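Hypothesis: this fold can be encoded by more than one sequence.
Test: take the structure tokens below, design a sequence, compare later.
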């Protein structure tokens, strides 16, 4: 049920972030964004049509943040199955009736939706019985970003992240020879309304080095601290797509575009952004 006070809301949010975070806070990085800065968000809509396996992909605003297995399910790479009740963080729903779920120490898997309570929980969100305090991707990443536009660097505000509708994730090594060309090709997209670009640094680059590199290139976008970059990279990148890579996602984490991170891919990315950006903004509650 919806919390009766802002204090309850902040406590629940912090607990959710603790479960979602892939690692402890870095001593070298700015502090986490203030959870109280998160914009008010209401995903529920009891008048909307019921969520079903057939329309789940298109009803992303109702996607729950956590899901559980309703029956034993064994990934091919495991000798023993995951048992009913095993809980994980929903990364995204995918085509073909599957969902990408991070079960923490039990692994990251693409699971049949039918083996989970995802649809049931989505309907609970729709009816307002299960509170959803922020879009899924915003909740997962919103307190973990550093703002390269700030001097000295600071945490990106939760409010700023929460007000964006589309997210461009760039998985690349800032010191790679071709990073400068990539940054220059993506820089014009930085000003697109509702878009937040996030760099997930590859190659174990210290946070101050990433900050200096982005500013030197005139591309002061948000970036993930080094100690979190690897976990987020493994969690977010689809199977078969390795860094350097580009992902375009909605604020719920639905995948809109994916490609190797090359300047040649920017035209297709720009076209994809032009198709989805107005719709994403209109769909945001």
């Amino acid at each position: 049920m919806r919390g009766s006070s802002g204090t309850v809301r902040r406590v629940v949010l912090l607990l959710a972030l603790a479960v979602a975070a892939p690692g402890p806070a870095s001593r070298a990085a700015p502090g986490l964004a203030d959870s109280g800065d998160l914009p008010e968000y209401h995903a529920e809509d009891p008048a909307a049509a019921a969520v079903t396996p057939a329309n789940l992909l298109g009803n992303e605003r109702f996607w729950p943040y956590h899901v559980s297995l309703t029956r034993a399910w064994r990934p091919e790479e495991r000798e023993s199955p995951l048992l009913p009740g095993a809980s994980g963080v929903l990364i995204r729903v995918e085509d073909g009736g599957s969902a990408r779920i991070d079960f923490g120490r039990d692994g990251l898997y693409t699971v049949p939706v039918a083996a989970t309570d995802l649809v049931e929980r989505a309907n609970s969100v729709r009816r307002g019985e299960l509170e959803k305090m922020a879009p899924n991707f915003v909740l997962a990443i919103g307190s973990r970003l550093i703002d390269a536009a700030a001097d000295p660097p600071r945490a990106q505000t939760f409010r700023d992240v929460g007000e964006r509708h589309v997210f461009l994730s760039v998985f690349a090594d800032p010191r790679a020879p071709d990073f400068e060309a990539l940054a220059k090709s993506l820089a014009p997209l930085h000003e697109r309304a509702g878009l937040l670009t996030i760099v997930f640094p590859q190659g174990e680059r210290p946070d101050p080095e990433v900050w200096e590199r982005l500013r030197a290139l005139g591309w002061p976008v948000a970036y993930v601290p080094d100690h979190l970059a690897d976990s987020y990279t493994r969690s977010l990148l689809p199977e078969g797509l390795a860094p350097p890579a580009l992902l375009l996602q909605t604020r719920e984490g639905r995948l809109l575009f994916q490609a190797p991170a090359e300047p040649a891919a920017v035209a297709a990315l720009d076209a994809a952004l032009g198709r989805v950006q107005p719709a994403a903004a209109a769909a945001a509650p």
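The chain has eight helices and eleven strands. Confidence is low (pLDDT under 50) at residues 1-32.
Hypothesis status: open.
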